[in-house]
Design goal:
The complex is a heterodimer. Helices cover about 70% and strands about 0% of the residues of chain A. By secondary structure, chain A is mainly alpha-helical. The longest helix of chain A is centred in the N-terminal third of the chain and has 34 residues. Chain B has ten helices and ten strands. Chain B is an alpha/beta fold. In chain B, helix 3 packs across helix 4 and helix 3 runs parallel beside helix 6. In chain B, the strands form two sheets. In chain B, strands 6-7-8-3-9-10 form a six-stranded mixed sheet, with helices on both faces. Chain B has a four-stranded antiparallel sheet with strand order 2-1-4-5, covered by helices on one side. The chains are: A mainly alpha, B alpha/beta. The interface between A and B is medium-sized, with 24 and 35 residues.
């Protein structure tokens, strides 16, 4: 062995100022982070596991394909509730997405950074933190009462749009701002107008971020209860028009748990709700990836 | 020969800071004019004035006149979109769109309203051939432009610009991010392109200016200190500072 080569000595600098060696600090940090991660994952498993154990037995073909019959024992299934949930979800997305994207384009591409856009941004951020029941009461006063939409799909969807719009605007704005400036320059230098640039270059490039935003807001639609409680009523029948009421899966969970003895069925409904969220995420991601590959947005698969 | 573009006593300000001082220069048709100079000397700022890309930044002011075929490119009734179609630009960093190779090249024409697919295919092929990229990508036209190498991406950007059939090509350090072989290919390409187009190029690379250009302007601190035939500038510079710069004593 060549003894002249000595291993690198740790710089003694830390000794004079710190009590603990950086290596020990690093070990401690890793351990703490690891424990936090385990706790988070455990909590998730415990909750999902509990829901599965309590509700699993109630999920039968009959439960899925019959309507709720009501009553104190919560007879019947959830067929109409599933359909109502999907109807509300689609209605909300159809109204919300164009509004959210348009507002985000204004903020990201047109609004100058002055006090006006500052007030808008601050307002949007503020609204994103307001409890949903406040939006619910707003929806009740405006859509249900003043506009005579009554307890209905439309009242519920419009209330959700108001509730989710701030989140959508800010997330889409971030997606648009993340599109490299060089794309804009390239398009303008080719003699394209600003609108052509936004429509043909910036929006397509921001599609992945916009899709994430839609998934995020759809998740809120599926999980919302308070705001819908006061705008959609609680009819368990299938809505026959935009102006008839109904209940979503999340609302149904609330009704079952509070008004009936069928607690297991509430958990069963919860399982269906979770499965629905997973399915929607998968479908949306598939479409998004297919689109990106077809349009050549991503380099490779 | 008539100058394709002309700058007459051009000064330019970012806010209060003066970036260009009284620059006058001719860009001659079907020849390559290079602008050299150290960083911050104003050469890129000047190039971007030629197709009004400076207007993307707020709070700037321009004095003097810029002409294309003897007509002012700014002022009332002058359409910026029309100008940029006639004066194309290639940027320092290759910036293909996140679209397929075909759609990248077809983009400008599509925006002009062309939807005839056979004509588009012809234009795409012709442009890619002009940009010396066709043979490398002809089987991958429907793959993403982002999957190409840096040098290929830059040639894709050149093809994309050629597809709208500009008259003048502005190049802003088009090879600064490329390896020597890709750089050489772009330089060869420029010699081909100048038969049909007028080219102005900004470059940090003195050898590139000496090899590839016919005319050369030397910028320093916002002024054009010297302008002349490239051979003259590099063999007998009139200005001491030009000589210092091209011989590598500063910059």
């Amino acid at each position: 062995m060549d003894k002249e080569i000595t291993p690198l000595q740790p710089t003694p600098a830390w000794r004079s100022t710190q009590k603990v060696s950086p290596r020990v600090t690093q070990k401690i940090a890793f351990t703490v982070i690891w424990i936090c991660g385990v706790i988070a994952i455990l909590a998730l498993f415990v909750i999902v596991g509990y829901v599965l154990v309590r509700g699993g037995r109630t999920i039968t073909p009959e439960f899925l394909f019959t309507a709720p019959e009501g009553g104190i024992s919560g007879e019947g299934g959830i067929a109409t509730v599933i359909v109502t949930t999907i109807m509300l979800m689609l209605l909300t997305v159809v109204i919300l997405t164009p509004l959210g994207i348009a507002a985000a384009i204004y903020l990201s591409e047109y609004a100058r950074d002055n006090w006006f856009s500052g007030v808008i941004r601050y307002g949007v951020d503020l609204l994103a933190g307001v409890p949903s029941i406040i939006f619910g009461l707003f929806g009740y006063v405006v859509f249900v009462v003043a506009l005579h939409f009554n307890f209905s799909l439309l009242s519920g969807a419009l209330t959700l749009v108001a509730l989710e719009l701030p989140v959508m605007i800010r997330t889409v704005e971030e997606a648009l701002k993340a599109v490299p400036h060089s794309y804009r320059e390239a398009s303008l230098a080719l003699g394209c107008t600003k609108w052509q640039t936004i429509r043909q270059v910036i929006l397509p490039a921001a599609i992945p971020g916009i899709v994430t935003s839609i998934i995020l807001t759809t998740g809120r639609t599926l999980s919302e209860t308070a705001a819908l409680y006061v705008t959609m009523g609680g009819s368990s029948a299938l809505p026959t028009s935009l102006f008839s009421g109904g209940r979503t899966l999340a609302l149904h969970v609330y009704y079952l748990a509070m008004d009936t003895t069928a607690f297991d069925k509430a958990m069963g409904t919860g399982i269906i709700l979770i499965v629905l969220i997973i399915i929607i995420n998968l479908i949306t991601h598939r479409i998004s990836r297919w689109y990106q590959k077809r349009m050549g947005i991503k380099e490779t698969e | 020969m008539n100058p394709k573009m002309q700058a007459i006593n051009v000064s330019f300000y970012y806010g209060k800071k003066q970036a260009l001082k009284n620059v006058s220069v001719d860009i001659k048709e079907n020849e390559i004019t290079a602008f050299i100079g150290p960083s911050g000397s104003g050469k890129t700022t000047f190039l971007r004035l030629l197709n009004r890309m400076d207007e993307l930044v707020r709070g700037t002011r321009l004095e003097g006149r810029l002409l294309l075929d003897g007509e002012n490119i700014r002022g009332t009734g002058r359409d910026v979109v029309e100008l940029r179609r006639r004066v194309g630009m290639v940027f320092q960093q290759p910036n293909p769109f996140p679209k397929t190779i075909f759609e990248n090249v077809a983009f400008g024409r599509r925006m002009l309203g062309m939807s005839h697919s056979q004509k588009l295919e012809e234009i795409v092929e012709k442009s890619l051939r002009e940009a010396a990229l066709w043979d490398e990508v002809k089987d991958d036209l429907h793959h993403s432009g982002l999957a190409l190498s840096g040098g290929q991406q830059q040639r894709l950007c050149i093809a994309r610009m050629l597809a709208v059939e500009p008259e003048v090509i502005l190049m802003d350090e088009p090879c600064s991010g490329l390896d020597p072989i890709s750089t050489l290919r772009i330089e060869e390409l420029m010699q081909e392109l100048k038969k049909q187009y007028t080219i102005a190029i900004v470059t940090h690379n003195m050898q590139q200016a000496a090899r590839a250009s016919d005319w050369c302007g030397f910028f320093l601190l916002g002024e054009m200190l010297e302008y002349g035939a490239t051979g003259e500038i590099f063999s007998r510079p009139q200005n001491k500072k030009t000589e210092d710069y091209i011989s590598g004593r500063f910059g």
